[in-house]
Amino acid sequence: MNNCLLCHSSFRREINYEKLFLFVKYKERYTCSECLKKFVKKKGKICSGCNKEIDTKGLCNDCLQWKRKYAGNLLDNRSLYQYNDTFHDVMVQYKRYGDYILCHVLAELIDQLPAADYYVPVPSSPSHLEKRGFDTIYAIYQKLVPLTKLLVKSDTEKAQGEKNREERLLTKQTFSAIDNKNISGKILLLDDIYTTGRTLYHARDALLEVYPNCKINSFTISR
Ligand SMILES: [Zn+2]
Ligand SMILES: [Zn+2]
C-alpha cells in the first residue's frame, strides 16, 4: 500500500500499463485514483498553437498575437490538463511554498511527451533556486526523460507568478542559452504551465540565437 501525497489516504498501487508502455519503465504511484480524477484532461476543441480549450477551431487570441509578433513562426505547444482549482492549489503548494515532494504528483500526471532529440527544462532563477533549494521544472521531468540543461535564467524584480497578465506580457528577456556544439535536431522545451506564452517564447528566442537550425517546440502540463 502507498499513501497518497495529496489526501494522505492509503491506496493499493496497481501498475498502470499505459504508462508502462509509453515510458517502458515501471512508474511508482504517488497519487490515489480519487485525487487523480480531480485533474482534468483537455477535451473538445483546443487551440492548434498552444492547446488552450477554445470555442472555435483554429488559434486562441494569445496565439494570434504571437503569430503576428513572430511573423507566423508560432511555437507548437502541447499541453495535457485544464488549469483548474486542483491544479492551481498543487502549483501554489509546490512553487510558493517549495513543497518538493509534489514533483512526484506532477510527474505522475504526464503520461505522454512528444518525441524530441533534446528535452530542455525551463530553469528557475538563481534567487528561486536558493529559496526553494531545488529547480521546480527539472525536478518534475528528470523522472521521465533525460534532460539537457541549455538555458540559464537571470534574476528579475518580480516572479512571473506574482504578475498580472499585462505585466507578464511586458516581461523582458531573462534567458540566455549555453553553447554546445553537439546540439542539432528537435528540442522540446519543458515547463509546468503555459499562461501567456511569454516565458516559452523568450526561452525559444534565446535558444534560436545559439541554435538557429534547431526545431523548437514546447510542452507544459497545463494551459
Ligand atoms: Zn488522494
Ligand atoms: Zn493558443
Global shape: globular
Q: Helix proportion of residues, in percent?
A: 25-40%
Give the number of helices: 9
Mean pLDDT: 91
**Largest sheet properties:** 4 strands, parallel
Quaternary class: single chain
Task: From the alpha carbons, calculate the radius of gyration and give it in angstroms.
Answer: 17 Å
Which structural class matches the secondary elements? alpha/beta
The kinds of small molecule bound in this structure are:
zinc ion
Family: Belongs to the ComF/GntX family.
Protein name: Competence protein ComF
InterPro entries: ComF/GntX_DNA_util-trans (IPR051910), PRTase-like (IPR029057), PRTase_dom (IPR000836)
Organism: Lactobacillus johnsonii N6.2
Report on the structure:
- The chain is of the alpha/beta class and 223 residues long.
- The protein has 2 domains: 1-37, no CATH class; 41-222, no CATH class.
- 31% of the residues lie in helices and 16% in strands.
- The chain is built from 9 helices and 8 strands.
- The chain has helices at residues 17-23, 33-36, 61-69, 85-96, 103-109, 126-132, 136-141, 165-169, 198-210, and strands spanning 2-3, 10-11, 77-81, 118-121, 151-153, 175-177, 186-193, 215-222.
- The strands form 3 sheets. Strands 3-8-7-4 form a 4-stranded parallel β-sheet. Strands 1-2 form a two-stranded antiparallel ribbon. A two-stranded antiparallel ribbon has the order 5-6.
- The protein starts with a strand and ends with a strand.
- The site of one zinc ion has 8 residues, from helix 3.
